[in-house]
Amino acid sequence: MTRRVPAIFAALACTAAIGYAQSVISAHSGLVHYIEGEVFLAEKPVEPKFGKFPEIEEGAVLRTGRGRAEVLLTPGVFLRIGEDSAIKMLSSRLIDTRIELVRGSILIECVELLEDNNITVVASDHTIEVAKRGLFRLDAQPAVLKVYDGEARVGRSAEIATVKVKDGRELALSDSAAEPVKFDEEDGDALYRWAQRRAGYLAMANVSAANSVRRSSSDWRSSGWLWNPYFGMLTYVPYRNSFYSPFGYQFWSPRQVFQVYEPRVWRAPQQGGGGIYEPRYNSNLGYRTAPRISGGYPSAPRGGSAAAAAPAPSVRTSESAAPRQSSGGRGR
């Protein structure tokens, strides 16, 4: 029995590595990644199963009662749906993702927008296109677009020119003559705070997921979704560099995550040579490591359900996972 223990641990390690490596490239937007409470897809209750992500097919409606849902769109873009809300998937193609806001409220968090990917929301006879990565809110009643960060382009009709709405501005969609005006970015609500927490959890999962790719020498050729078996969720992993979420959390690429695990320190020059940067050596542990990072990430997620894939879907896309200072409290 004693001899079998090392073999068992080796098998478990291999299983974990395989779980990380299985990032399935998705050709579509619309994976229902996480839910809380009452959520219905095509009028059927979404029943969370570990490692299973329902997909919203074109023409299908996802709605919430006393619940909330998180949907993965193109790589690096998260759609979060508030209580008593509904969306319809008009097109799930990555190059032309189109969603209709039927009722209620949604938040779109765009960490990265790949060059060939497009996100458009139809609401109140308007088309709202995500022009730059950022944070966007749409309410159906009254019909209003709020841009916390980034830029959106709003199309009204063939006769009226497209309107650009930039960060810190809102646009009333019910008035065809309305112009973007400033709004109080500190005025957050339950949906905003929930979306912020979710962003923190996903950023936490990103660190170990990106590091697993780095250590396994996997061929990570583009940004995408990667399954983290320890967190039981998909997370976003950029191709290179790193990106900040609009909420201030950092998503690392496999090429950059070494800065978390192996921060380099300056070694003074010797015998007239140039100084060098190298990882810290921890004499207590006996290997090179990083100091404990203070703050930045929330605790591990609790409650709710990951409605998500074990071999997991992955699609792939970076600026530099402690939260960066965001532009205000917004009701936190």
Structure, explained:
- The chain has a seven-stranded mixed beta barrel.
- It is built from three helices and 24 strands.
- The protein is mainly β and 332 residues long.
- 15% of the residues lie in helices and 39% in strands.
- The chain has helices spanning 4-21, 190-216, 258-261; strands at residues 24-25, 31-41, 44-45, 61-72, 77-81, 86-93, 96-103, 105-110, 119-123, 126-140, 143-155, 163-166, 169-172, 181-182, 224-228, 233-237, 242-244, 250-252, 264-267, 276-279, 281-282, 287-288, 305-306, 313-314.
- The chain has a domain at 24-190: Jelly Rolls (Sandwich), CATH 2.60.120.1440.
- β19 (264-267) and β20 form a beta hairpin.
Topology, element by element:
Blueprint: H1 4-21, E1 24-25, E2 31-41, E3 44-45, E4 61-72, E5 77-81, E6 86-93, E7 96-103, E8 105-110, E9 119-123, E10 126-140, E11 143-155, E12 163-166, E13 169-172, E14 181-182, H2 190-216, E15 224-228, E16 233-237, E17 242-244, E18 250-252, H3 258-261, E19 264-267, E20 276-279, E21 281-282, E22 287-288, E23 305-306, E24 313-314
Parallel strand pairs: 1-24, 7-9
Antiparallel strand pairs: 2-3, 2-4, 2-23, 4-5, 4-6, 5-8, 6-7, 8-10, 9-10, 10-11, 11-12, 11-13, 13-14, 15-16, 17-18, 19-20, 21-22
